[in-house]
Amino acid sequence: QQVTLLLQGGQALLTFEEEKVASQILKMAHCRVTCEDSSLDVKPKRITMETPVTFEVHLDVSRKELQVLDVPPSMPGERIKDRLEMSFSKSSRGGGEVESVDYDEESRKGCVTFLHPGVAVDLAMRGDYIVDLEHEEHLKVEPTYRYDLQKFQTFCGSVKRTILLDGIGGKEDEEDLQDHLEIHFQKPSNSGGEIECIRYISEGKTLQAFFSEDKMDME
């Protein structure tokens, strides 16, 4: 799960190459940034992140089970199960020996389990199968999937090299103002340092920012 932050108009994100520079800037209540014909008071803020989550989803495709979809409710459920078993047992149609059949009348879905692996895979690749109900019906078939959630972990994430600049109310062009911010915060005389990246957006806009793990420290 990628960590995000919604950047509002009049804000900027600033990532320094060194943590200590970001820490120095955050100790200031405000910073006065000089522009061409004016100056701005901007407020450095620490970024508060939502709790990041990592997990793995494992997908298993059954080699013995086959899903049968949209079975017409043309007869009682028990009889439909029997017809499914008889139809999918026919080797002339690509079927095989059936171990068991489940059928849900509400969803009109069936699950056929074959005795030997491989038959279900071959039929799923075809996409449909002829089933003998009241009439021959071409029914859609698909694989049976099983999902397993593993290695689910939450982290306490902190952003140590990136700061948020708030209260930027300048009326200059967006790119020009971003350049002034970068010039100001890269000067050691302003407690700044080398800047890795910066992004400013003007009033009336929003921007979704995405953080990679190298921009965060995971604990």
UniProtKB/TrEMBL annotation:
Residues 12-100, 111-196 form the NID domain. Signal peptide: none annotated. GO terms for cellular component: cytoplasm. It comes from the Eukaryota. PANTHER family: INTERFERON-INDUCED PROTEIN 35/NMI N-MYC/STAT INTERACTING PROTEIN, N-MYC-INTERACTOR. This is N-myc (And STAT) interactor. The gene is NMI.
